[in-house]
Amino acid sequence: MAKKRSLIPNNPISKFMRTRIISLDHIYLDFWSIVHLITGFLLGLLIAPRFSAKLTIIIVFSLLCLWEIFEYYTSGYLFFKETTSDKLWDIIIGMIGLYLYYIFLV
């Protein structure tokens, strides 16, 4: 059986993005956290004008969770493997991005 070829980039930018900002027992933040924050904000920008606040929160949360599930099933091939704590913080930070959308633009 042929070994799967990894598509994970291994370059200076990829290494920089994985640099830990905070790494405690239950808190993990790296520079990808900034991307998740912006993603939550942009999802709010795209979804909130079309739906109620409650439905927007449900949709954004669902999309963030689906993305993390996609990352989980493609980790080692498309993405680096992440800890459960890192995945949970990705979702939390995405939701904070949505919250910031409501604070600054609604």
Please explain how this structure is put together.
This protein has 106 residues and is mostly helical. It has one domain (22-105). 62% of the residues lie in helices and 7% in strands. The protein contains 4 helices and 2 strands, in the order αββααα. It has helices at residues 12-17, 32-47, 53-74, 84-105; strands at 20-23, 28-30. Strands 1-2 form a two-stranded antiparallel ribbon. α2 crosses α3 (53-74), α2 (32-47) crosses α4 and α3 packs antiparallel against α4. The longest helix has 22 residues, at 53-74. The radius of gyration is 15 Å and the shape is globular. The N and C termini lie far apart (54 Å).
Sheet of most strands: 2 strands, antiparallel
**Which descriptor suits the 3D outline?**
globular
Helical residue percent band: 55-70%
Radius of gyration: 15 Å
Number of domains: 1
